[in-house]
Amino acid sequence: MPSTSSSSSPSTPSPDLPATLHDPKSPFYQQVSLRRAIIASYWTIILLAVPLWWYTTSIERLALPSGRVQQLAQHSLELPVSICVEGPRIPFIDKIQVQLSKQISQDPQRWKGIAPRLFGSTDCEKSSGNKVYSVKFTSTTGTSIHHRQLHFPPNTAPSTIVEVLSSLLVPYSSSRDSKHRIVQYAPHYRLAFSLLNEDAAAGDVVKDWNIQAELRNYINPITRRLGALHNFTVESQVQFHAPLAFPPRPLDHSWGITPADLTVFVNSAEWTLSSSSSNDPVLHFILFIPSAERRPLVILTDTEGTVSPSSAFLVPQWGGIVIHNPTSISSSGTLPDHDVSTVFAAFATQFQSLLGVAALPRGVHAPEGLSAWQLDALTRRRTLENAQGSQDTLASIVKLVDQIENMPVGADVRDDVEDALAALQDMRDAAPVSLAQAFARSATALGLASRAFFNPGMLALLYFPAEHTYAVYTPLFASALIPLVVAALREFMAWKRERREAALMKAAP
């Protein structure tokens, strides 16, 4: 009986499938049309994704008022200062004016931004009000200050009057030391008072100090007078282990700290001085208690061992330090009140120096603690500093945006720049009328300009330029695009060759 089979022969192709599926010599996925369709689909996806890529990678770059910034930099701020000399002697007033003009010409940098105006009157208070500085001659034995009045003895020489006026109106010299000592302006400061025991394990340790009364007596009067310029927050702490980063120099009956040691006296690695998480700048005031085995600890003025009469020193733009060698400590470990009072008297002097409060000229007495002359001089200094700082910051923003083409400039940055320019213009308008208003506008302008400069969106590209972008993305996209480009070129050349061959075959007889 003949055998039958239900399976078809392998060599017999199925009528429902293309022949290329059964021919191993020509797989279906190597067909020219299918290969070109695959390559075209890749390029289609890429081209369709270009708008999405453009939208997601594009940056907002609004125009900044560069012209107004440049125009503003060409005009310097001048704060007028009116001085009324009381008396009918016109020639004497003219001599004072000549001496004052000579002072300004000899040190123009010191008087930069200050425009003094001198005039005479028989009654300065009645003719000018309390916003004008007045010079009076009274039967006093010395020079004294009462509010904005300056009292001289009769027959005081014009040169002496001008010298005192210069020291009160522009007490800041043009030297670099004074500029580096004073802290930069900030609307808020934290005052950190720290009592540091070098080594409590050595015994004779100070555990407490009564600072509430001394804050009221020495620090609060200063902060109240400076309340129009700054806000202050006070904090205090006591530490029982604050070792020095260097060994003091042994002397005959004491231990000494050389001038070189003072530069590294603050041991930031082991002293925990800041206890708050605020971003406000901190002014540190440290009472350092040496260990019992290193007392007395003194400051040396030179390498030869000359002992300084002072036990306090200032760290520029950082704070002040007082080294105290207690002679007696109560059984409870509390520092005597008179010792704390002496320390805070030094802290108050350091506090005023750091903030830029100038001392009164020698021989000039004031009944109140911080006179109006000192406060006005500090306000003028801060106003000029803020105005210059705002202009420099705005110019830096414009320069950075021009240099970095892909730096984003959002609406928040543009608005801050425009608001800072408006505040600077308001400051110039207020300068002839009110020094307090001019200072307030300058502080606003500085805050807005700084906020625009440190905008997170701008800082991101400031530290990630275009060269870094190319270095990151080129290896990623090159490995994917090069095969596609080569495949597309190869298929294009094959297509042109096929068309050329077809044209030749068609033209052949």
Explain the overall architecture.
A six-stranded mixed β-sheet has the order 2-1-3-5-4-14. The chain is flat. Among the domains are: 33-57 and 466-506; 79-177, no CATH class; 186-355, no CATH class. The model is unreliable at 1-10 (pLDDT under 50). The chain contains 14 helices and 14 strands. 25% of the residues are buried. The two termini are 60 Å apart. By secondary structure, it is an alpha/beta fold. It has helices at residues 32-57, 66-73, 90-106, 124-128, 158-169, 176-181, 212-225, 259-262, 337-355, 372-403, 411-430, 435-453, 456-462, 466-507; strands spanning 79-86, 114-121, 133-137, 143-146, 149-152, 188-197, 231-239, 249-250, 255-257, 282-289, 297-299, 312-315, 319-323, 364-365.
Features:
509 residues, 15% strand, disordered N terminus, single chain
Low-confidence stretches: 1-10
Question: Looking across the biggest beta sheet, what order are the strands in?
Answer: 2-1-3-5-4-14
Q: How far apart lie the N and C ends?
A: 60 Å
The portion of residues forming beta strands comes to 5-15%
Provide the gyration radius in Å. 39 Å
Helix content: 40-55%
* Number of E-type strands: 14
Mean pLDDT: 86
User: Which shape, going by the Cα principal axes?
Assistant: flat
Protein name: GPI transamidase component PIG-S
Transmembrane segments: 37-55, 470-489
GO biological process, one term: GPI anchor biosynthetic process
Pathway: Glycolipid biosynthesis; glycosylphosphatidylinositol-anchor biosynthesis
